Amino acid sequence: MFSPEAYALAEGLVSKAYINQGSQATARRSKLVTSLLSERRLPKDGWDDHSIESFLSEAAMMDSNNFLDNVGVGEREARVYSPLVARRHWNLAHGIGRSGDVAAEQPKAAGSSLLNKLTNLLVADAMRIAGLEDMGPTLVLPLATGMTLTLVLLAVKSKRPKTATKVVWCRLDQKTCVKAVLSAGLELVVVSPKLVGDQLCTDLHAVRAAVEAAGPSNVCCVVTSTSCFAPRAGDACSDVAKMCAELDVGHVVNNAYGVQATALCKEVTRAWRRGRVDAVVQSTDKNFMVPVGGAVVCSGKGNAEIVDAVRKSYPGRASISPVLDVLITLLSMGSDGWQRCLEDRRDVYEYMRTKLGECVGEFGERLLDTPGNPISMGVSLETHAKLSEDGDVSFFGSMLFSRCVSGTRVVAPGKRQDVGGVVFDGFGASHDAYPVPYFTAAAALGTTREDVDRFCAQLRKCFKDFRKKAAKRGRAEDGDALDPAADRLADVNLGGS
């Protein structure tokens, strides 16, 4: 807010030398904004919080609801009753976009429009650094991954023949994908992966057979996924992309949390270089460590048709909040900080594989061999299933959760699940009959070595507790008296704590 004239006048109140020093400090922060607007990519070094706050405050003053002399008499004038809510949103209350285009400039909100456009540019730069090359424009939406997938499928559907009502989906046992397809009014054709050793891989022959059986003109698109729970590997997106180009059907890639893994980014890049990829969807919270509520849609360079269709089909204005979360985070990281996050995650993945393998080996279990999954890993529970009643180990996840371990998934064979009228056998495993029970853990962005160490410590306690309970149950079934002294001895023998 200080103009050169204001600084000159300030010298009449405070020593000129001190005013000059202060003006140089504010000019330094102003240069950050100038560089950002000029280069339109991540700053090399992350900004400090005060610089980010100052930038957002000045941008907010460009929105009409913050004009000193504004008189709003419309039905929507960014009126916010609670000062707390207003501060939470930096007084940016107009939202982004217009009814015809979610990325369009908002006449009443020049500041919000500027922040939105900058966010899309910075996200594109961050994804390029992560390994997504030859990428076209990105679109950050204030919708989580599932709803964004639905919008993308509707956009693809609008470009396909009227008869194209089927989606050939490479099975990935998460309800979100199924509901996204059904919410778009499309019919789901499930193609299960094939089991190769421990790993579940894309069955390319089955995908082709499903498309040809339906008839390519009746297929809206094939949906593949990169990031997933082990033992499923990321799909062979580049091979599917070549197939889709050959058969002339759409191809949507669910890259939910794949941005953080270089190998997955390279596979997506190969896919849109070698074949057909209409759109790629990724989550903002999983990839950029922000609250849930946003997603990014992109495609290869020179192929922005579906991204544009999504942008123009978004009904009404959109909230700027998820967009702002990403902008603040990326400015705070800078390109160097973002690269460190990616490198740290790779390091933690290798560390987790080593430590987790050692830990579970102590109890007769093993890491599943899933080289095609660079984020998630699976651990067998076969030995412990033999110790439990009816072979059920599903409660092992509850044991971990009660010890404040979150994020693990225990999958036991035989579960049948109905999702929107589609019935899956062996749900959770992405396979009708995966041969062993297991649990998963992920070395995702933000996970630390300390997290891994604490996880392994709690895991050891769970294994010991599981075995102790199994031993007690076995003695009870044999008719032995449950002598407290014997129980304490069992605890010692099992290393109980």
From TrEMBL:
Chain positions recorded as substrate binding sites: R98, S99, Q106, R317
Binding site for pyridoxal 5'-phosphate: R76
NCBIfam families in UniProt: selenium_SpcS
Pathway, per record: Aminoacyl-tRNA biosynthesis; selenocysteinyl-tRNA(Sec) biosynthesis; selenocysteinyl-tRNA(Sec) from L-seryl-tRNA(Sec) (archaeal/eukaryal route): step 2/2
EC number: 2.9.1.2
UniProt xrefs under Gene3D superfamilies: Type I PLP-dependent aspartate aminotransferase-like (Major domain)
GO-annotated cellular components: cytoplasm
Keywords: Cytoplasm, Protein biosynthesis, Pyridoxal phosphate, RNA-binding, Selenium, Transferase, tRNA-binding
Residues of the site described as May act as a substrate filter by repelling compounds with a negatively charged alpha-carboxylate: E75
Cofactor dependency: pyridoxal 5'-phosphate
Pfam families, per the entry: SepSecS (PF05889)
Molecular functions (GO terms): O-phosphoseryl-tRNA(Sec) selenium transferase activity; tRNA binding
Record function comment: Converts O-phosphoseryl-tRNA(Sec) to selenocysteinyl-tRNA(Sec) required for selenoprotein biosynthesis.
Family: Belongs to the SepSecS family.
GO biological process: conversion of seryl-tRNAsec to selenocys-tRNAsec; selenocysteine incorporation
Protein name per UniProt: O-phosphoseryl-tRNA(Sec) selenium transferase
Top EC class, one word: transferase
